[in-house]
Automatic annotation (TrEMBL), chain A:
Protein name as catalogued: ABC transporter permease
Alphabetically ordered keywords of this record: Cell membrane, Membrane, Transmembrane, Transmembrane helix
Major location category of this protein: membrane
Family annotation (CDD domains): TM_PBP1_transp_TpRbsC_like (cd06580)
Sequence intervals crossing the membrane: 12-37, 57-80, 92-109, 115-138, 150-169, 199-217, 238-263, 283-309, 321-344
UniProt keyword Transmembrane, yes or no: yes
Cellular compartment(s): Cell membrane
One Gene Ontology term, aspect cellular component: plasma membrane
A molecular-function term among this protein's GO annotations: transmembrane transporter activity
Recorded superkingdom: Bacteria
Membrane topology per record: Multi-pass membrane protein
Provenance organism: Candidatus Cryosericum terrychapinii
Automatic annotation (TrEMBL), chain B:
The name this protein goes by in its record: ABC transporter ATP-binding protein
SUPFAM superfamilies for the chain: P-loop containing nucleoside triphosphate hydrolases
KW rRNA processing (keyword) present: no
Pfam family name, one: ABC_tran
Topology of the protein relative to the lipid bilayer: Peripheral membrane protein
GO molecular function: ATP binding; ATP hydrolysis activity
Location of the protein in the cell: Cell membrane
Amino acid sequence: MLRFEKRDKTPVRLRVLVPICSVLLGLLVGSIVMLFARVNPVRVYGAIVKGAFGSAYTFSETLVIAVPLILISAGLCLVYRMKFFNIGAKGQYIIGAICGSYLALFGPATMSRPLLLTLMMLLGTLGGALWAVIPALLKVYWNVNEVIATLLLNYIASYILWFFMYGTWRDPGSHGFPLSKNFALNAQLPRIIAAPSRLHIGLFFGVAAAVIVWIIIRKTRFGYEARVLGENERAARYAGINVVKTVIIGAVISGGLAGLAGIAHTSAVLRVLQLEINSDYGYTAIIAAWLAGLDPLVAIGVSVLLAALEAGGYQIQIVMRVPFGIVGVIESSILFCLLAGEIITHYRVTLTRRLSTPLALDERARGGA
Amino acid sequence: MEGQEQLMLVMGNITKRFPGIVANDHVNFELRKGEIHTLLGENGAGKSTLMNVLDGIYYPDEGEIAIEGKRVNLRSPLDSMKHSIGMIHQNFMLVASLSVIENVVLGLESQGFYIDKKSVAHQIEAIAKKYNFRVDPYAKIWQLSVGEQQRVEIIKTLFKGARILILDEPTAVLTPQESEELFGILREMKSEGKSIIFISHKLNEVMSVSDRITVLRKGRLVGTVDTASITERELAKMMIGRDILFRLERKDIEQGREVLTVEDAQAYNDRGTMALNKLSITVHGGEIMGVAGVAGNGQVELAECITGLRHLVSGHITVEGIDVTNATPCTLASAGVNYIPADRLGVGLVPNLSTVENAMLRKYRQQPMCRGAFIDYGAACTYADGLIEKFDIAVPLKNAPVKVLSGGNMQKLLLAREIEENPRLLIAEHPTRGLDVGATEFVRKTLLEQRDHGVAVLLISEDLDEILMVADRVAVMYEGRIVGIVDAHHVDIAQIGLMMAGAVGVKA
Ligand SMILES: Nc1ncnc2c1ncn2[C@@H]1O[C@H](COP(=O)(O)OP(=O)(O)OP(=O)(O)O)[C@@H](O)[C@H]1O
Ligand SMILES: [Mg+2]
């Protein structure tokens, strides 16, 4: 018989070991499914690892995917702690990409590269922040559920992108495809290692953002207020915490980072605005944030792992001609095992049997005592 | 001494450790058939822990449990239920939006998908009738008073066939009349051969209701005694290991200026009905104003209005002459208004944050904890240490969530935090609810000390004895207004009782 008891503190050893074992277990479960699909799991995993970490190039491509995940999940770690359930990172990412791209496409062509890029990043951040502030305002003033509001805003953002891509922003030379014209060199965020790698300086933004958010949560007044608010709103009000202000600042940070992720990825990796700008990173980052226990530094590692699955997944699809569905199966079995592993890190699970302590009970039951 | 057939339950050598503390240290406990057995001990002595072991919530690190001579292994509340153990927890475990019927059958295995509401309702009514009380099976929990909810809990356990009933501080939230009714129910159960474990800090109740008393101190068993063979004073000594003052010394001090004035206050409660009905009251510095009244007559709302947690529809509140009507809690904090709410974990403390983070809740904007945008957690820790030391709070681990503190120590922490701010006006709502005699004495002494320092104290309590013991004047509240104010030194208790029931309105 299994028994669960909540732990007060998780030993560091477990916090490292459990996720590793969970991933391994997930791989095992995934391979069982693959056997049924008559695919050799060893070869598939080999291909994934090779596809994700096999060479400097593939690893850098993994990091390319990890960058937006790191940026977005850092912000989510903060807002989820104040129980503002922003699931609209996707929309904020898109709006960020649109806002930043505006400068890239229609800004003054003569502007120096650093200045233009700085402005683009700022505008993208601002756009994402704005897109997150809307549901925050709706929540604090009219008590509108932010889960629904942010979700719906994702759709609106997608359609705004459609509107521009099929409208005025479409490159006349694109043969009718919904593409903007290519970004000029001035508007391309620098990549940091030689081609064909697309890894860009957004990686530094991501790591910096994670560190800063970690400091905000752990060391600052605002982070303390956010945590108090998330745990007990009435106590927060009694403590004199400005609920409206705190939620809005949180939304700005989280939306801003998602917007930054959107414009950085568009400007450095895609170098063109198009319908498909990988905005689903906004959903993957939600998983990264929760799996990381809302710790932005841990979220860096989780983001890389999730990115590796994704990058390796493309690889097996292309090289091994395995249906992409297999990737989904592997991904979900790993996620499932990681979530199950969470239980072990938060609860003490024991196999109960009769306790063997020698007892005064026998005498007492016999009527001694 | 006695044959085992009389023993309902034996717990032997129970040990339960938590990080930083041994909550139960080789505790032995036995319960006879048809007895009311009180578990007594200071806050944090390990009473709730021991009972949670019996209810299958915690699994002991060592020790064994036998029911009617047979060893049992209790791994979950469901297991305990199967062994006819039923527990009514310190905080009720009812689903507010569900009806009485639904709550009663919740988690019952024998009940299939379909609930035969009619038959359950009949059974509920039958149980209630047997013990001479009434409950509407179709009522939703949120519509019931605390006392009624408790009865639902009792019915729930009886419905599941409990023969061992554990009540963890059931009277802490009851009025004296409600407590008496509860004791009636318990005695009736006892006469049927059910065994009852009762936890309370109120020694007079313990003396009147129990057959035997087991005392715990700091996780260890002190002993089990027959109630008939011991006095309250001896009990208290057993519990805390020293003599205790049952009388408080009060100095005669000069009453100061008006600190709090509330004029014609009107406010709604959460359900949207008028809770304060043109209420007016004045409290002076160096005075403890007791507010007596049956729960739900606007006391909570009054406190919330004064502390800025509830909006006033009309009327005025001033503190030391400054208008603070509908001011923010922040403004009120700088005006020197401090609050010890009845709902500790709901308003006063943040359950999942640590003791340190809770201790700094009202101070984090000030030096030395605040350094610009940053917080100096080292300074916060030092500050918390100061509070813990000065107010003698038992905190096993400073960085563990505050919710694992025992009820009494939570209250001490809250009190310490608020007093340490040097209030001008202190609003204390049921400040000794759930506290052991030692801690109760401590809290009352602290309130009197504050008064002696010229602080205006508004003491809201349902415990008339407490009010009469510490207050200078008593205001009686009924249906959102003060129906009378009397001098606490020359009172007619019968008259206060009548005023509380709304029978007379006297202005003094
Ligand atoms: N889940 C837990 N984790 C860590 N420590 C705990 C936990 N539960 C209780 N404790 C600690 O064990 C000790 C005993 O707590 P318990 O709640 O049993 O006391 P109690 O006798 O019921 O006190 P009170 O009269 O205040 O309710 C306390 O010091 C408390 O802080
Ligand atoms: Mg307790």
